[in-house]
């Protein structure tokens, strides 16, 4: 009889452990949650800003509020003036009128997924809904969605299936929290003041007001709809969720999503910018830094989100594109500091990816085909690197960063192997890694071997008191950066 009771007790204990559920409490979440290894291994993902704002293709993805605001400028671009001249006054042609023009007639989810795979991406995160209020998925809670209007097909489902078929993880981003204060309502005859369109533009509100319960409930329904319908491996939130008035949903949505991950039996990732109010403890989420980086190794996994373009996140006709060289240097630096890079592209309204963006992705993929072992599945070393070029820390700091050079070395580690990646090529092919000098403070073991990963060039090396001296013969074998694989005795 005692054995029966003991068996039943053990069954109850086992069931309790298996039935664990997160409570909307930081301690409960902290007690169990860990960032899954798939994310820590992934290093590189693709972000996609795509929506009706791709139709005017002017100024930025924030054309929507700009067309109602005479004072909204992006450099020398003014969306209000452009709209008046091109489409007419907002009383005659509002943002809603772009939606029928957003047809995505050339959208090919499988082609997108193949491109992202070739680029080296391991996860893909399309914008599920931007501040504009138009749902880029088959929403159950708004008529303004991609299944009912515009393309009239669930582009999110098509992309999710295609991405997963290529072996990549699929995420979704929500920017909807700012919808309620996104549009100006200055003129009474604008459609932003028409009650029949309030379910797109929301009701007139003071910009500094807090969300009322009606909007909080709508946000909850729309967000959990995305979670339940598409089972995203990663859920990304824009900074609107950090504003005052959203405190009641922070613990609740985190617990809800993590519990769904338990139901799906997979590790999920929740990302937030924590830009001003730091609403989420950074040991229970993945911190995202917009157009910026960390200056040192961060103790928790983190992420940079930036774009191939310098001006906009969505497609615009006069975009200024970054180079693949610059973006690879950025990726390498981020990975050396325990981060991942989520790189954005903005497709056109017809569903095609701009050739400039495609060329950048393919170029990055070519580099990673050769050198990817120094990035994927690695972890930070004892120091992130060395060199004269310093990186500014924090959101929107990338514009202050200088281009790196061959003296800038970044380190990653995998098992007992150290990878040292130089972010440039010296004319004479000679590199010096000072951090690996004899009797350096980081590694007491002697170097056994050094391999040149980036090409078949002949390599000579020696470890001296100055550092690890490397002499690579011949021309540089690739662009951007050069990887050395170091093993110790």
TrEMBL record:
EC number(s) from the headed UniProt entry: 3.2.1.51
The Alpha-L-fucosidase C-terminal domain, residue ranges: 403-487
SMART domains in the cross-refs: Alpha_L_fucos
InterPro entries attached to this UniProt entry: FUC_metazoa-typ, Fucosidase_C, GH, Glyco_hydro_29, Glyco_hydro_29_N, Glyco_hydro_b
Domain Glycoside hydrolase family 29 N-terminal: from-to ranges: 17-373
Keyword annotations: Glycosidase, Hydrolase, Signal
Role played: Alpha-L-fucosidase is responsible for hydrolyzing the alpha-1,6-linked fucose joined to the reducing-end N-acetylglucosamine of the carbohydrate moieties of glycoproteins.
Name assigned to this protein: alpha-L-fucosidase
Organism classification: Bacteria, Pseudomonadati, Kiritimatiellota, Kiritimatiellia, Kiritimatiellales
